[in-house]
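Re: the multi-chain job from yesterday

Posting the exact lines I submitted so nobody has to dig through the queue logs.
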Amino acid sequence: MPLTTRDDRMIWRRRTTGRDFAVWFGWLLGTAIFVWSWQVISENTIWFFVTDSPRVAADIGSRMVPPAWDYLSRLWQPLWDTINIATLGTLLALVMAVPVAFLAARNTTPSVLFLRPIALLIIVSSRSINSLIWALLLVAIAGPGVFAGIIAIALRSIGFVAKLLYEAIEEIDPVQVEAVRATGASEGQIISYAIVPQVMPAFAGISVFRWDINIRESTVLGLVGAGGIGLELQASLNVLAWPRVTVILLLIFATVLVSEWVSARIRHAVI
Amino acid sequence: MATAAGRFEAAAWRPPPLIASPLLRWGIGLGFALYLAVAMGTLDINWARVWEGLDRGWAFVLAFTEPDFTSRWRDISQGLLESLTMTVVSTVVGIAISIPIALGAARNLAPLPVYLLCRGVIAVSRSFQEVIIAIFFVAMFGFGPFAGFLTLSFATIGFLAKLLAEDIEDIEKSQAEAVRATGASWLQWLVYGIQPQVMPRLIGLSLYRLDINFRESAVVGIVGAGGIGATLNTAFDRYEFDTAAAILLIIIGIVMAAEYSSSMIRARIQ
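And the result, structure tokens for all chains:
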């Protein structure tokens, strides 16, 4: 316990002098980085637009009401596309994520040295790139449309699902695996009778959770041309049709709320 | 006879299904199959175009073997600088705003009106995609990293304040009560009774959010809010796959490094 002596009395201190300095320098460094970063942003900003923003905000706000409700009838088809992108993308991701998860889990991977790092690399690459960037890439490759959106959602979701699933697989009760193995079961039988039943609830929960996230993400994929309601948003923004933008945003908001409610109900039932 | 029946039973045993009620199980299965059929039927996919794209897809995969960092290095480094500074500033500002909102959104600290107000702020921040918020901020504040910084700060509030508020609601009550019993003022109670209990979690969440903010900063650039996303978008528009591959590799590298170091720090703190 660090102490100092002052007037012949011992006073409790939280840290030693050296650690006090270290903490102080840490804060100094952090503050310096923050101030420098702010300066960089400030240099790249046109401050006239920022000071002008309250007027612009009020202007946009006044243009956004009243919402163009009759536009709603043209939004059902894109909304259906959006839901399909999210659902089919999630399904595709599940199919691909399951083998990756089994390869990545320490207790089921056939080779810790070779296959596990590859599986982990797949997970990290898929997770570190946002679905919008995947969509950008796929639109450049496969052309604009729903297909690019589905694949983008799938590629982004593999890492998410595989990561959570392999963590669930690593946390299973090994006693059950041993019991099934003791009956003389093959590796495949061990997986289907000892491991799958243990991770099934987690898998169902993860799938629905990711589907819910994907509904959110697929609403904006259209901004880069990957289909769905984002296309309409982009089109309306381009012609500054703000009343239409309001309707689209409200519809997105309602869809997200519904999907969140559905996923919460299902997860509640499963777990 | 007994052995034959036993063998019969053993052969017929199956693991219990995930959904116990057969009606619900078959209902869900059938409904899902029906949905798939309808969805596939209405999907408008131009397979010829996809087929044509396979060559380009392969070209992109090949580009990863020789990424081009040099020829657009000025754009890349400028975009990266903006992304990183946006990440730092928006995380710090986001945390600074999140803490008071988290205090207000914890039911054991705040009176009901304050609680509802703060929960409302969190709900608004969480329900919209960063990109949609970015579009509005770009429209209001013009192109550039300032709009991106505001977007990420705003998104940080919803994430951090919600999780921190939940942590504050879960604290050990006796510690806070002990501090209160010494006659501490409200602020002292906060600093000595509550803050030490939630600090490890706050640091962990902040590091995690730093990570997320960097990833998101790569995206908001697509709609003009500054950062590496704009550079990436341009690279794809020009079909410069080797430059795009270089940018993606940099993003993956930084995210991996951030994830690794933040998990190390979190392991030491918690």
